[in-house]
Amino acid sequence: MKFIIVGLGNFGAYLAARLTDNGHEVIGIDSDMAKVDSAKEKITHTICLNATDKNVVRNLPVSDTDVVLIAIGEDMGASIMATAVFKELKAKRIISRAITNTHETVIRAIGVDEIIHPEEETAERLSKKLEMKGVIDSFDISDGYNIVEVTAPKEFVGKTIGETAVRNRFNVNILTIIKMRNRPNIFGNMQERQKVLGVVSAQTMIEDKDVLVLFGEMNDIQKILDLNEE
Questions:
Q1: CATH assignment of the domain containing 199
Q2: What is the pTM of this model?
């Protein structure tokens, strides 16, 4: 896929680098040359330009880009203006970062429905990790449903997914299992690494130190976490 990331602060630069690492073509844009220089070795293309200037932005391959992400966080005015410019140039898909409620209201008024709050989302995931013992990571879906990574309860170890009867007992599905394996790194030292099993079945065995990726409501998932307290 092709992406244009506007704003190469910490969030924008990291996202652009990750997308590049995953094989996508990314154009990273910022009006600050220092930020452009800092990111140029990690991103497919970097350009120093003012994304609020329609005459300049129209020279970008907007029509050939799958996603434009406005990642500007420090300057709300610049974020709103850049969003409006790409909207006017009929970008296929625009995702904008919002810092405040007012910021989000204005962006929605422009006609952008995909709005992200990276700081809030990170804080929410971290809060679950801190307050719920056994939670490794979590992702809110909607209406109280979450995808949560948890350490396999001792009661599940040595059993197949079918034998745990997790769906009938807790109304929770195990989407996949992450296996933790010690493997040598490039220096020959043993390092713990993850291996995702992919699609699992009722016959998949749960082992010690496995990480279960669960889907369900948080109050039901909490019942599984409580097993380690018994």
A1: 3.30.70.1450
A2: 0.61
